[in-house]
């Protein structure tokens, strides 16, 4: 079977699956390019409100393909990054459904999503120093923002492996799922699917912007213009009419 990024769109959610079982879903240049293209297609499809990234069992993503990595210099490394950076920069809400090992660049891919949910076999492994290479792709920035400097140092400098339960405990993952991980991701995405798409995308942009602010008043100012735009949109008027009808029974 040819290694590929499988894509399915259903009910407002695009599910992208890294399907390279012989390498535990390791990212080649081709797979990274396919992933970036699949993300772009999902963003361009106005019926899609959320994006789920997962890997064909039993792994999530074993990192960059070692042969590709061995020959990589700056251009090659940036080409490897393209796949997970497309997720990091995605305008849609994103969920990583991590059912197995997320290693190296696979860890980066999981970190790039807005939210991570994990199956019982999930584990997060930096592995860069174990291979004798420096972390890349913004890993040190992403991991510190999520788990803080001490846990980030344990994972990055001392090779601490974080399993599913520990990932939830330290804030690396939102929740542990015992059953169907992709179905759980779809369920999590339902409110986003039900929201007006333009307001949804604007809200994600604002979350990114206000994350770097240190002043409450600046956050109020950042939110006021898109909030006014949403209040004057037809979608709000329609929902308000239906809500009033539901309250009054008319």
Describe this protein's structure.
Belongs to the enoyl-CoA hydratase/isomerase family. This is Enoyl-CoA hydratase. Pfam families: ECH_1. This protein folds into two domains: 5-193, 2-enoyl-CoA Hydratase, Chain A, domain 1 (Alpha-Beta Complex); 195-249. Strands 1-2-3-4-6-9 form a six-stranded mixed sheet. A three-stranded mixed sheet has the order 5-7-8. It has ten helices and nine strands. Strand 2, helix 1 and strand 3 form a beta-alpha-beta unit. The protein is an alpha/beta fold. Helix content is 52%, strand content 16%. The chain has helices at 29-44, 66-71, 74-88, 105-112, 139-157, 164-170, 181-194, 197-210, 216-231, 234-248; strands at residues 4-10, 13-19, 50-55, 94-98, 101-103, 115-118, 123-125, 162-163, 175-176. It starts with a strand and ends with a helix. Helix 3 (74-88) runs parallel beside helix 4 (105-112), helix 4 (105-112) crosses helix 5 and helix 8 runs antiparallel to helix 9 (216-231).
- Tally of helical segments: 10
Binned, the helix content reads: 40-55%
Oligomer state of the chains in this structure = single chain
Shape summary: globular
Overall SS class? alpha/beta
Which superfamily, in CATH terms, is the homologous superfamily of the largest domain? 2-enoyl-CoA Hydratase, Chain A, domain 1
Short key terms for the protein model shown above:
single chain; 250 residues; alpha/beta; 2-enoyl-CoA Hydratase, Chain A, domain 1; 2 domains; 3-stranded mixed sheet; 16% strand
